[in-house]
Fold:
Amino acid sequence: MLRFFLTKLAGLIPTFFGVTLLVFAMIRLIPGDPIEILAGERGIDPTRHAQLMHQFGYDRPVLVQYGIYILDVLQGDLGKSLVTKKPVLEDFLVLFPATIELSICAIIFALLIGLPVGILAGVKRGRPADHTVMALSLTGFSMPIFWWGLLLIILFSVNLGWTPVSGRLDFAYFIDPVTNFMLIDTLLSDEKGSFLDALHHLVLPSIVLGTIPLAVIARMTRSSMLEVLSEDYIRTARAKGLSPLRVVGLHALRNALIPVVTVIGLQTGTLLAGAILTETIFSWPGIGKWLVDSIGRRDYPSVQGGILMVAIVIMTVNLIVDLMYGLINPRIRHAR
Amino acid sequence: MKRTLLGAVAGLAMAVAFVAGAEAKTLVYCSEGSPEGFNPALYTAGTTFDASSRTIFNRLVEFKLGTTEIRPGLAETWDVSDDGLNYTFHLRHGVKFHNKADFTPSRDVNADDVVFSFERQWKADNAYHGVSNGTYEYFEGMGMTDILKSIDKLDDYTVRFVLSAPEAPFLADLAMDFASIFSKEQADQYLAAGTPEELDQNPSGTGPFVLVDYQKDAVIRYNANTDYWEGKAAIDKLVFAITTDASVRYAKLLAGECQIMPYPNPADIKAMQANAALTVQEQQGLNVGYLAFNTEKPPFDNKLVRQALNYAINKQAILDAVFQGAGQAAKNPIPPTIWSYNDDVQDYAYDPAKAKELLAEAGMPSGFETDIWAMPVQRPYNPNAQRMAELIQADWAAVGVTAKIVSFEWGEYLDRSKKGEHQTVLLGWTGDNGDPDNFLNQLLGCDAAKSGGNRARWCDKSFNDLIVQAKRTSDVNERTDLYKKAQVVFKEEAPWVTIAHSVVFMPMRKEVTGYIMDPLGTHQFYSVDLQ
Structure:
């Protein structure tokens, strides 16, 4: 097991360096530099421009800049945001919990609905239930997040008044940001009703962000179930006289879930990408929105640092998924 | 008897206290973006100014809200020497800085605070100059480093600014956000503690609201300053709910989650105006969108050609298609909200026949080929430059002029047009301080033609003489006269086609009263009350 783990870990190192190099190069390929953007129509005189470029080190050869950057990163210093002047890592860590909280709730929503629905479709294959599920999941998969989100807001928040429009918490609650996970912080605080309010605010964004993963999980579960249900051991279990529930719930499901676990890992990337739009609609103060704003402002350090951290998160999640895979299925961890 | 009376009084007192406590008026403003920080001198974005300079701070002089006129601020009175070089400010007594959790001011505002606030931005040897990666965009952008010769404290309540040359707009510059007054005492405290950056995160000011808390990208909270020198605001608490999407801001306004919002979607405005629960205020923006002819490149060195192309453009069609009602045709390079706007000037009417006539007179009866540079981004003075360019291209084609539309990424666009690589270019300008010089000199002066800010690269002696002279005198009447003459020269020589001034809309719920729109584009809440 340990060998398995170490091999996987070693494979991440070249990926890590590849990501940093790619991001570093790409942001610099975009025309325009942060100093010019800051000046706007006013323009900035060339000597001042040169002075500021030198101050921030942007006039050195790109490879030299990259070298300095990597050395800093390995010591944990991601640089300072050109806009807020605060350390990038600090900005990231303040905002990241919000994205994690939202993503976790979105995945829970996707699993809570996607798994049962996918199982149902797999078991009732070819019947109306199956077709309905597939049609709905195709719709969910194809919907533009932005439109879906605004639609839900108009229906449930403005017209029905069942959910709040946006944000993480009603402004009337003044919560100490201990962990920046709103659900935890509200429990820790002594403001009555704030936990429920936080949950209330999570409803719509989780649904919106979780819709695509839900569709993917439903389809994946269905096809996985179909494959497993056609296996010989299932026929044996049925022949033995076991109840259908036991057959499906115990024997089929455990094996069917293996590819689904992988899919969840892959969905991390989708979630973080979808978070950008969801966070913008619901004014959710997470890293998705922060990254987009930083690109527009040519805030090089924030973009580099942010994407690097996101890449690390995705790599870590997939590493865990690979490990779990190895745990669930002994054949994989012993394979060479 | 006594017992019942006592009980009744106690009950009444509790009821009153309960009601009084529960009556904390909170105004929620749906802000369109996060502030970059809380020191307005370090930044340039409107969101930063709304969240810092206009809530937390005051300046020596202020703009009278709703106008670009100057009125006293932290300076009660001031004298300007005859040669225009010495500005002496007499500070108001008894103005208090905010009490913060980690800072309790021991004295009122005095000259030391004023000197510090400017020297930090000016002098490289000031202990705070490099703090927070200091870049003072507006201090330098407005030319303060060249204009200022020295700032002297004459006594605790008197400060003198000595200029290197007369600069009439100087007073207006001091009302701008970068000129906000900080507490030197607080600055010294943080410096001694080794954490000077804290000054830019949680500053104490003298303004109508005290910063209480900022949750990054989410919520900013303020309490009304009960000791504010102009009187406490009518509201008790102010909350900025950061909501970047305009449709979501609208939804929040309808749901009552915020009471006032900026920058609505143009498509939503009609619905908002028809909604009985909402009020929509509107005002002309302090901006101008224009097309500049590069007068250094033929045939645009010929006045007749420039005038012809002015006649060829259908401005009403542009206002309808591009601005969708959120704009007003421009005839002068300055908007009507700025003093000295010359309303007597006649604009070039839409007259393709006259255009052809002038082109023939200029020796180009069959037209010529040129380019139109269009911006890739949305700006306050031009929501869709590509579309505008297409309309102009069609208008010019009708008189025989073939134009190719050219575009670059925004930073590159500004850079290349500054170097004069264009033949014609679409651009615009938003005023910084409500002074005509800020438009006319920066955009059409001879110095600007050399440095590139003057995209028409137009240097006209009579025009330039007028605006340089207007810069030298502080007499508003004299300046008005000179600027009016300058606008007439401008119209005749036509280095631009002046296209439009945008109209800014501000929707709010009916319960909000007393809100006044700022022509300079900031959002201020001191005057607001809630019914």
User: Anything to note?
Assistant: Chain B is about 35% helix and 20% strand.
